[in-house]
Amino acid sequence: xxxxxxxxxxxxxxxxxxxxxxxxxxxxxxxxxxxxxxxxxxxxxxxxxxxxxxxxxxxxxxxxxxxxxxxxxxxxxxxxxxxxxxxxxxxxxxxxxxxxxxxxxxxxxxxxxxxxxxxxxxxxxxxxxxxxxxxxxxxxxxxxxxxxxxxxxxxxxxxxxxxxxxxxxxxxxxxxxxxxxxxxxxxxxxxxxxxxxxxxxxxxxxxxxxxxxxxxxxxxxxxxxxxxxxxxxxxxxxxxxx
Length: 242
Description:
Number of helices: 3
Strand content: 35-45%
Radius of gyration: 19 Å
């Protein structure tokens, strides 16, 4: 398991994984040849026509509010997107964990995508990385996609030493309380909250640091904010999705 802090995070997934499910474009100028695309045609969840053995099926989900999320089968990334009438794609992306598993590098395809073309339930993302294309189909499986689970990267603030949690698709989490590395497992609770279990941490003493995150055992998510509670129900603090 890899621990990534906001200060040190560098998205280097391009050299860590091959683009499973992606093939080299036959025409080097293919990234500039997409036809007219309406933004609404892109909205939905898209997958590769293949089943993988990772913790979850790789997907890309484009939302009407111009946010996107994607999974490579182990790690999730989210960001923003927009396209123009010619199909030119512009995206931003947040940090991600870097677990390795059987999957497809769909987050990288989106974050490095330059244009898209949509033909009914078929989507092609043209990428600036090695002139590749990624062929996807619209998903009809209700179990594939974001599903409201808090998988991803959650941080208190955009500062180097801010507490953060990385919630991973394989049921584990990692993070830092501002002083100590923390690790453990998580599971979905009956009330749609998540429970943080089997937590362990390093035991450094950091003067002036409030290590409240180390005491968290339950998280509730609403509108992109995770509110964390202690075992007695006391609200300890909040983390925001990144």
